[in-house]
Structure to design on (429 residues):
């Protein structure tokens, strides 16, 4: 069966203008406003497709042109173990990872697979330019796996200090190139490197949070939960580095409310940070849209000290129209920040009570939920969705794995021309 591209338009969140997507629009070409654009789908009803596999079950609300191999959707189940120690009656866990017991098959063990499949499926099969993605770790692993499995040329920029996240169950194809920034650099430096590479028209940026395919791919976590629960949750918890996943969940909650069958969108979004990298948390607590100042040196030092390395972005989509600030305001949500010690504690508790290992970022969300319970922010009988954004590595790697060493280490301070020439040589080998 041939796949028919999803029908949708784009909405400028700031101005309300609706326009046709030219194929890879990351903003409204007729507006200078600092705003996200949002997909407006022709199908207003939540319509999971039983004829499509994996993530494409939700293709009606994904801005995709095609389907790709080896996709998998998040899995939601009602918690008993963790719910028991937290005293919650209706705790639903949406798990993105590798856990055969519940049918979770994401072999990179991260919900970043949802965004990788979303973005790569938005690309035309005839695309000749090379995709460029920047990552603090999990996104790199997800895009590398998806692009390798589907023979899509890509350059992935990561900090060299996050090299340990580049593990794979199978070796990658040569279409995937990993470029690292030197020891002591952070995610923002990787972004700078990618931006310089994209100065050459043969390369193009994935776009991060501005890419509707990334957000709507990640938003499938909420769709998974609502299929199981039958309605929009009262509260949503997720650890955030950029906040993109939390934004995406709220956007889908709005779509579900418009559907009319899943209740009012009263879902409070709770975003979670790892101390001391609390850029968005500090900004939110000051009740302001513009990010509080942080120097490159502070950012790198904080990023090096946190356990959940992926939660370290000094250029997040926080204040932009439709970004995390607006999401928290509109939903009546809040932010939490937890320590490394708390993260370790809840990693162990989750393993003991639910039976699977989880990543530090996911445990950040669990720790924050525990604070919300203690502080009376959530009630014991409320319907709560806990987004476990990564886990099951022990299951996925029990038969071994390989580490992908960077193909190049380049300083983000190099001139654009030097960076482009160096990367070009990799594709000519």
């Amino acid at each position: 069966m041939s796949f028919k591209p999803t029908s949708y338009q784009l909405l400028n969140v700031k101005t309300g203008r609706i326009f046709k997507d030219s194929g890879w629009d990351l903003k409204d070409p007729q507006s200078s406003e600092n705003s996200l654009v949002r997909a407006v789908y022709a199908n207003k009803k939540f319509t999971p497709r039983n004829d499509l596999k994996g993530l494409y079950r939700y293709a009606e609300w994904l801005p995709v042109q095609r389907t790709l191999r080896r996709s998998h959707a998040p899995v939601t189940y009602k918690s008993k173990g963790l719910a028991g120690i937290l005293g919650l009656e209706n705790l639903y866990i949406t798990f993105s990872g590798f856990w055969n017991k519940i049918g979770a098959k994401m072999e990179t063990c991260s919900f970043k697979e949802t965004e990788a499949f979303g973005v790569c499926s938005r690309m035309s099969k005839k695309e000749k330019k090379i995709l460029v993605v920047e990552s603090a770790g999990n996104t790199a692993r997800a895009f590398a796996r998806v692009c390798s499995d589907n023979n899509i040329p890509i350059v992935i920029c990561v900090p060299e200090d996050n090299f340990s996240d580049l593990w794979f169950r199978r070796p990658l194809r040569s279409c995937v190139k990993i470029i690292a920034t030197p020891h002591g650099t952070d995610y923002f430096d990787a972004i700078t490197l990618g931006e310089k590479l994209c100065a050459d028209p043969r390369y193009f940026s994935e776009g991060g949070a501005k890419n509707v395919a990334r957000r709507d791919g990640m938003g499938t976590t909420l769709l998974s939960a609502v299929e199981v629960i039958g309605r929009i949750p009262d509260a949503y918890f997720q650890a955030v580095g950029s906040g993109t996943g939390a934004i995406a969940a709220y956007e889908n909650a709005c779509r579900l409310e418009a559907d009319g069958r899943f209740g009012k969108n009263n879902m409070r979004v709770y975003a979670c940070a790892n101390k001391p990298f609390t850029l968005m948390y500090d900004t939110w607590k000051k009740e302001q849209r513009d990010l509080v100042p942080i120097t490159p040196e502070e950012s790198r030092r904080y990023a090096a000290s946190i356990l959940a390395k992926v939660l370290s972005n000094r250029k997040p989509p926080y204040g932009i129209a439709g970004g995390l600030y607006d999401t928290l305001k509109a939903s009546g949500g809040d932010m939490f920040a937890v320590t490394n010690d708390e993260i370790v504690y809840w990693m162990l508790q989750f393993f003991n009570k639910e039976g699977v290992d989880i990543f530090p970022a996911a445990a950040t969300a669990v720790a924050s939920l525990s604070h919300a319970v203690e502080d009376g922010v959530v009630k014991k009988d409320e319907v709560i969705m806990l987004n476990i954004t990564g886990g099951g590595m022990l299951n996925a790697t029990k038969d071994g794995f390989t580490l992908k060493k960077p193909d190049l280490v380049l300083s983000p301070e190099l001139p654009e021309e030097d960076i482009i020439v160096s990367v070009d040589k990799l594709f000519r080998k």
